[in-house]
Each structure stands twice: as structure tokens, then as C-alpha cells.
Specification:
The protein is mostly helical. It has one domain. It is about 60% helix and about 0% strand. Helix 1 runs antiparallel to helix 2. The longest helix has 20 residues. It is elongated.
């Protein structure tokens, strides 16, 4: 589940950044809907479960190794 969450979060980030990069100049305004999308996706990626350190733990579990202590 964590690996799927990581994959989906990164895909959502890429889509949001792509949309922002290809939008018109008004995308920089706080009232533009993509501004909220950017804030939401980047905030979500800062949650502990979405940090890159989790990927190492996922790899350890998939290899049958001890996943180690949680440390942030």
C-alpha cells in the first residue's frame, strides 16, 4: 500500500507541475485553481508517509529485510 501511495503521489505531482508549466500567465495568481492544486500536492508530499526515506523501508520489506525504526 505504501508503494502504491508513493507511486500515485509522484504521478499526481508530475501531472500538476505539467499543467502548471503549460498553463497561461494567470496561473501565478492565488485565485487560479491550479495554485490550490500545487499547494495541496506539495503539502501532501511533505507528510511523513510520503518522504523518500519511506522508499528505503519499502525496499527493505520487499527484500525480506528488517525495515528498521521509524525516524524522521
Amino acid at each position: 500500500m505504501q508503494q502504491a501511495g508513493q507511486t500515485l503521489a509522484q504521478a499526481a505531482r508530475e501531472v500538476t507541475v505539467f499543467a502548471f508549466d503549460n498553463a497561461g500567465t494567470t496561473v501565478v495568481l492565488a485565485s487560479h485553481p491550479l495554485q490550490r492544486c500545487l499547494r495541496d500536492i506539495f503539502t501532501g508530499l511533505k507528510h511523513a508517509i510520503m518522504t523518500p526515506a519511506i522508499l528505503g523501508r519499502i525496499g527493505n520489506v520487499r527484500l525480506g529485510l528488517d525495515y528498521g525504526a521509524i525516524g524522521f
